[in-house]
Design goal:
124 residues; alpha+beta; 28% helix
């Protein structure tokens, strides 16, 4: 699984791991946005991408919906990070993924929810 390692100002600038992700641009489908973000943050081109579902991030205060996809990655290339982004792509094994979750290295709730969605569909 592809994760990105970086720091978030709002999280006391602590290093953590997240799934690549971002906003859907105007005129773009969630699937197109996911493929774009994998290239921008991860530096990979997508060979195949399939939806795994969606969820509301914080429905009490926002209608923002998070879409989850499973992708087969093609060749690695150069990252195309947005200004201010400093992500480092990291490919982890299923055992590493479980350890990262257990040890609290993945702190982002959206990433944790997406990983849960993936594990329900594709047990490791």
């Amino acid at each position: 699984m592809l994760l990105v390692r970086g720091r978030r100002d709002a999280a006391d600038d602590e290093e953590s791991f997240e799934l690549p992700g971002g906003m859907v641009d105007r005129g773009e489908s969630p699937q197109q946005a996911a493929a774009r973000e994998l290239g921008e943050e991860g530096g990979f081109e997508v060979a195949r991408i399939a939806p795994l579902g969606s969820f509301f991030a914080v429905p009490a205060i926002s209608a923002a919906r998070c879409h989850v996809f499973e992708a087969s990655l093609d060749r690695a290339g150069a990252q195309r990070l947005d200004d201010g982004e400093t992500w480092t792509p990291v490919v982890v094994t299923p055992d590493d993924l479980r350890r990262y979750v257990d040890e609290g290295l993945i702190r982002d709730a959206t990433s944790l929810a997406a990983i849960c969605r993936y594990l329900v569909r594709r047990p490791v």
